[in-house]
Design goal:
heterodimer; A: 395 residues; alpha+beta; Ribosomal Protein S5, domain 2; 41% helix; disordered N terminus; B: 409 residues; 5-stranded parallel beta sheet; globular
């Protein structure tokens, strides 16, 4: 009978397996091999050798999911990182003792400038803990007994967390009952500031617990935390705050250009705009009759195509100020369409100073104040253009 | 049946109120049809775009900005070939030809009327023999130079002048096939097709004069044919039309005769050339040996240049400078010096430049009103102030651009 090899009694050698789930079968297989070796020596129980060669000799596919980094390996990496940090500080002429991570990032960006668009593809130098994925240390001892009492649930960290949270909830309720019994229960309704923070997402929680979760587990956990929140006790706040991340509020404030006044006392405002590779600067006067001059010529002559003039019309038409402002602009670079777009952006930004804040918000929502981020996509090797592939020939 | 009743109702409404059309918005035509008797004025201010004054001689400042229509028979005689293609499409669509009375045309008309009454023998001491300086309509692209010229031509026709109208001089210096060496002068080149077309149209316009004017000398065309002295000019024109080979020479003869005889004072001559800067520009024509032809080597151009020079009197010269059909000139050029070049400018000097500019506010409103009356603008916002402002911005009050904006797709 294939009893767990614990009953072998022989000294079981074990290897440090760092890595996700070491399947029981593999361990069994190895121990079987070990047991087979010792079989002659043991003599007490003859273990029937299960035909597990398939599992032992072939590389375990499950373990290939993640590369296993040994503890020494990680330690070595950390030492190398620290030495490298000091070297880098030396190179940059800074004090090695007070060289922070931001300094490292700046130094690397300076020494290895990269034009790649993808930020994660650029050279980085960070602490190995941030680079190498977190892995679980071995979870059972020399005798094979797991350390954690919830090991056999399969998701020990998750269930222990749930256990802990529920325990806290029960504690709070008990305390509240006691207070109520004594009559000292005060309704302290201090609502925590939940705006500007959000719950952890499932991926973040998985990363924290180094364990795979299912959607239902995650939902259950969040429900429990929300129940904790509703109980309104100050004591467990730090516990709950661990699981909240702040959300950067997108600043809706549009920078409004200050008004300037020229010699005649007419108010005007200047601003710039860009589109693709065209740059434009527009000066919008407060009172006028709707004349627009581009690079010294009338806009009708500069933009013979109606589409471009429609682009110029958009900001004024949106604010219902079609014949009320005079504009002088200069533009360079790009083609006719991108020049029109650049001037449109510049005019819209300049108009912000003549207009109420609500209308500025409407303009922002209409997309008049956003620089169009689209630029020409890079041509890739092996293709004819950015997306177009060479003609496919069957033979 | 229903439709005919509706149209009769509309024409009935028109008869009731010949001169003025009320502004009843875009439902105007429909409401007119429904209530023919309902001519009661609205609370809204009337926007008027038409005038009933059909005679250009009586057009004055109070008619400025208003449209007047030219009867279609007149159109066929006066302008058999010469309207800009977009305008002739509009005429066909609306089945009426309406021109707007504008300041440059009014100025020209005043000029013409004043010199009309002047004694023909008066000679200006300073400029010698000159009776009338040529006037040139110039302006940016699409501002209405050609149509102002048409207005002046209509006026002169009504005054019973002889009209020598070259619709587009650019057509004579580009895209010509069949250049022949001239029979009259070996060095010059003939353009038989263009000359014969022009002669046909000239005949249509000035039919009644052709029998009255008599030729002053004898012209021999070839061994068999010749025109005797004293025979009517119509014969020369016929000769040119039938014998296409001699058409250019016929044109030269006509021009010479008219120039000579207008001095006599029997009739008034109006020389109207559109795109006169073509006469002094480059050509794109090539001879058989691929050598470029200069403008003066073309017989038609040579003769026309002589015509346009102000060394004769008894008539008027009205010219238009145009970049639209011109060769080798940048799009933004519109000043006389730029378009004519030094040679042309010196040849035409002295002349009176008249600037034709974009619509002003009143003219713009009138144009929109005209389109609305003809139910040409179908957008529901077209008659609102907002819509008009958009059109104003997009076209920048340029008549040509406005027409293109309002046109069909």
């Amino acid at each position: 009978m294939a009893a767990p090899c614990v009953s072998c009694g022989a000294a079981v050698f074990y290897r440090i397996f760092l890595g996700g789930r070491v399947s029981l079968a593999r361990r069994q297989g190895v121990w079987k091999a070990a047991a087979a070796e010792l079989q002659i020596g043991a003599g007490s129980q003859i273990l029937r050798l299960r035909h597990t060669t398939g599992v032992t000799t072939k590389k375990n596919v499950a373990a290939l999911r993640r590369e296993t980094y040994t503890v020494e390996f990680i330690k070595k990496q950390i030492e190398e990182f620290n030495i490298g940090k000091r070297h880098l500080a030396n190179m940059m002429g800074e004090d090695p003792e007070t060289f922070t991570q931001e300094d490292i990032d700046r130094a690397i960006a300076y020494l290895f400038p990269s034009g790649l668009f993808e930020k994660q593809a650029r050279p980085i130098m960070k602490h190995p803990e941030q680079i190498f994925p977190k892995q679980r240390a071995i979870q059972w001892g020399e005798d094979g007994r797991p350390f954690h009492f919830l090991f056999y649930t399969g998701k020990q960290s998750y269930y222990s967390l749930m256990h802990e949270a529920y325990g806290k909830l029960l504690d709070i309720e008990k305390r509240q009952n006691q207070l109520q019994a004594k009559g000292l229960f005060s309704e302290n309704t201090k609502t925590k500031d939940l705006i500007g923070s959000r719950w952890l997402i499932k991926e973040e929680l998985e990363e924290m617990l180094v364990e795979k979760l299912s959607d239902q587990d995650y939902a259950q956990f969040i429900r429990l935390l929300e129940r904790l929140l509703t109980v309104q006790c100050g004591a467990e706040e730090e516990f709950v705050q661990q699981f909240r991340r702040s959300v950067t509020v997108q600043s809706k404030k549009q920078l409004i250009e200050p008004l300037q006044y020229d010699e005649q006392g007419m108010a005007f405002s200047t601003s710039e705009g860009r589109r693709k590779s065209a740059k434009a600067e527009a000066i919008v006067y407060e009172h006028g009759s709707g004349r627009i001059k581009v690079n010294g010529t009338d806009y009708l002559l500069y933009f013979p195509v109606t589409q471009d003039r429609e682009q110029l019309m958009f900001p004024f038409h949106f604010l219902d100020r079609l014949g009320k402002h005079d504009v002088t602009c200069t533009v360079s670079g790009g083609g006719r369409s991108s020049q029109a777009g650049a001037i449109r952006l510049a005019m819209a930004k300049a108009l912000c100073s003549f207009v109420t804040e609500e209308e500025v918000e409407w303009m922002r929502q209409a997309g008049l104040l956003t620089t169009d981020p689209r630029v020409k996509e890079r041509k890739k090797p092996g293709q004819e253009g950015a997306r177009r592939k060479f003609t496919w020939k069957k033979r | 049946m229903m439709l005919s009743r509706v149209t009769r109702l509309i024409s009935g409404a028109r008869r009731l109120d010949p001169g003025r059309f009320l502004d009843t918005g875009s439902q105007g035509s429909r409401s007119l049809a429904a209530h023919p008797g309902n001519q009661a004025p609205d609370d809204r201010p009337r926007a008027v775009s038409r005038t009933s004054e059909k005679d250009p001689a009586r057009h004055a400042e109070q008619h400025e900005g208003l449209h007047y229509d030219i009867p279609l028979q007149d159109m066929r005689t006066l302008f058999p070939h010469s309207l800009p293609p977009r305008f002739s499409m509009q005429v066909k669509t609306f089945s009426e030809a309406c021109l707007m009375v504008r300041k440059p045309a009014l100025e020209l008309l005043r000029y013409l009327k004043n010199t009309n009454f002047a004694h023909p023998a008066v000679r200006s001491v300073l400029s010698g023999d000159v009776f009338f300086n040529p006037s040139a309509l110039d302006g940016e692209k699409g501002t209405g130079k050609t149509l102002s010229l048409c207005h002046v031509i209509h006026f002169c026709a009504k005054q019973d002048w002889l009209i020598l109208h070259v619709p587009d001089a650019h057509l004579w210096v580009k895209n010509c096939r069949g250049l022949l060496p001239s029979t009259h002068n070996r060095q010059r080149l003939d353009q038989p097709i263009q000359a014969s077309i022009w002669l046909k149209n000239f005949k249509t316009t000035n039919d009644r004069f052709l029998s009255q004017i008599k030729v002053q000398e004898k012209y021999v065309w070839n061994k068999q044919e010749s025109t005797e002295k004293g025979s009517p000019l119509g014969e020369v024109v016929e000769q040119g039309i039938t014998r296409v080979k001699n058409a250019t020479d016929a044109v030269g003869v006509v021009l010479k005769e008219l120039k000579g005889q207008s001095r006599a004072g029997r009739f008034r001559l109006l020389v109207a050339v559109d795109g006169v800067n073509a006469l002094w520009g480059r050509t794109t024509l090539k001879r058989e040996d691929k050598s470029l032809v200069a403008a003066e080597e073309l017989a038609l151009v040579h003769n026309l240049r002589k015509m346009v020079k102000n060394d004769w009197h008894g008539g008027a010269i009205v010219l238009t400078l145009s970049q639209t059909g011109s060769l080798f000139k940048p799009r933004t050029a519109y000043l006389p010096q730029e378009l004519l070049g030094k040679e042309g400018f010196d040849a035409l000097d002295p002349f009176v430049p008249i600037l034709v500019s974009n619509y002003n506010r009143k003219e713009f409103e009138s144009c929109i009103q005209y389109y609305l009356e003809n139910s040409w603008l179908q957008h529901e916002k077209a008659h609102t102030e907002e819509g008009k402002q958009q059109l104003l911005f997009l076209s920048s009050a340029n008549p040509g651009q406005l027409e293109r904006l309002c046109a069909h797709l």
